[in-house]
Design a protein that fits this description.
Elements lengths: L2 H17 L3 H13 L7 E4 L20 H19 L10 E4 L2 E3 L8 E4 L9 E4 L17 E3 L1 H15 L5 E4 L3 E4 L1 H9 L1 H10 L1 H24 L37 E4 L9 H12 L8 E4 L9 H4 L5 E6 L5 H8 L4 E4 L13 H17 L3 E6 L9 H16 L2
Parallel strand pairs: 1-13, 2-7, 8-9, 9-10, 10-11, 11-12, 12-13
Antiparallel strand pairs: 3-6, 4-5
Length: 412
């Protein structure tokens, strides 16, 4: 047994202890109730954490040399750390997942950017993108994506992990567990935000041709996922939000058969369209979402763009179940419109934890407004603190936020 295996085995024992706690089964019930539109109480999760600021006790320091083991080690250490300091309603699963090795060929153009870092240890940075689509014929550069499943490498990794820790905790093979479509986020990184917003006015037909081509590429990728049997309903999250539901896979799914889009979650977003009209948002994004994530069994739509005044177009997406309501949206307005129809994926403002000392009055006011608005309108709601670029190297800030917010939802 080499040193990597010794490290991983010790962590596996620690992970197994918290994975076997009864709280996980109870939390699965709470998560499922929210996504099934039968909420017992709001749930709280925390994601996209500034891990580089949190290693106060050295427990987050990675020690494994092997890249496959290091990936498992990272998950163990971060899960154990979060459970110790700010667990909220996180669920710890009683197994370890090894992902299938799935490769995607290039779409024909690559991101060309300049970045600026304020903190060298923080992966969050400012970006300036070079426009790859200045000319109308630049669309011809785009290529269909070829999806390849490397089964040999997958089984090599699976066997390696199973041999090392499989006698301690079960090892599962994971595939593509939800269909994502954020084409406008991709285009934003290939063009820059300013160029897109200008061209929506100056070159509307070109922009329509561009999103049509990106949608065709995405449709091809989704079809290949199905053909290759890569879909797998076992998501850890749907872009930071809870995936648990009794409505997936589809009722007619036969155990052991390859899953189809109708058996998994879909998740779409178009953050740049927070700056355009409802009509333009519908024409250039929602209509194309119908052809991609709209084929999925359930759909979660939205990211950071405010959607409280656009619910009527978002709900045109088939099988919509969850809508993102961000700090830039009016949660009171959203709650009144959404009511019991969909899950409100509420995103408390991460700027409120970008401080060395938490202002509890600000948090009480913000969370109180979210909860009161949702309670008044009988909403199903989950609160996800995410996009946490910094907490000013203060672990206590996140600890205090979690305790205060959990106290409030438990008294909902």
């Amino acid at each position: 047994m080499n040193n990597d295996e010794k490290i991983l085995r010790q962590l596996a024992y620690e992970y197994k202890k918290i994975a076997e706690l009864p709280r996980n089964a109870e939390l699965i019930k709470l998560h499922t109730a929210v996504n099934d539109l039968k909420m017992i109480r709001p749930i709280v999760t925390m994601a996209e954490l500034p891990w580089h600021e949190l290693n106060v006790d050295g427990s987050l320091t990675l020690q494994c040399k092997d890249p496959v083991f290091k990936n498992i080690e990272k998950n163990f250490r971060q899960t154990l750390f979060q459970f110790k300091y700010f667990p909220a309603d996180m669920i710890v699963r009683p197994y370890v997942k090894v992902q299938k090795v799935v490769k995607h060929s290039s779409i024909g153009v690559e991101i060309d950017e300049t970045t600026l870092h304020l903190d060298a240890d923080n992966h969050i940075s400012s970006h300036q993108y070079k426009d790859q689509f200045e000319e109308d014929d630049s669309i011809n550069l785009l290529k269909d994506v070829v999806v390849t499943y490397d089964k040999e490498e997958t089984m090599k990794r699976f066997t390696k992990v199973a041999t090392a820790i499989g006698d301690i905790i079960p090892i599962h093979l994971g595939g593509i567990d939800y269909i994502g479509n954020a084409n406008w986020d991709v285009i934003s990184r290939l063009r820059g935000v300013t160029a897109i917003l200008i061209d929506l006015l100056d070159r509307p037909e070109f922009m329509m041709d561009l999103i049509e081509r990106f949608t065709q590429i995405k449709e091809g990728v989704i079809a290949q996922y199905e053909e290759l049997g890569l879909l797998d309903y076992d998501p850890d999250n749907i872009h930071c939000t809870s995936p648990y539901t009794s409505d997936l896979p589809a009722k007619d799914y036969v155990a052991g058969e390859p899953l189809k889009c109708k058996d998994v979650w879909g998740r779409g977003a178009a953050q740049i369209f927070g700056s355009v009209s409802k009509e333009m948002h519908n024409e250039y994004d929602i209509e194309f979402m119908k052809r991609t994530v709209g084929k999925c069994g359930l759909v979660y739509y939205g990211c950071c763009e405010p959607l409280d005044k656009k619910v009527d177009i978002v709900e045109k997406i088939p099988n919509l179940r969850k809508i993102s309501i961000t700090p830039w949206a009016d949660v009171t307005n959203a709650a009144e419109i959404i009511g019991k129809k969909y899950v409100i994926a509420s995103k408390p403002n991460p700027a409120n934890v970008a401080t060395s000392v938490l202002d509890k009055n600000i948090i009480k006011a913000e969370i109180g407004n979210i909860l009161n608005s949702c309670k008044k309108n009988s909403c199903n709601v989950e609160l996800t603190l995410k996009d946490i670029s910094t907490c000013k190297y203060s672990l206590q800030t996140l600890i205090d936020w979690e305790k205060l917010t959990m106290d409030m939802v438990k008294n909902y």
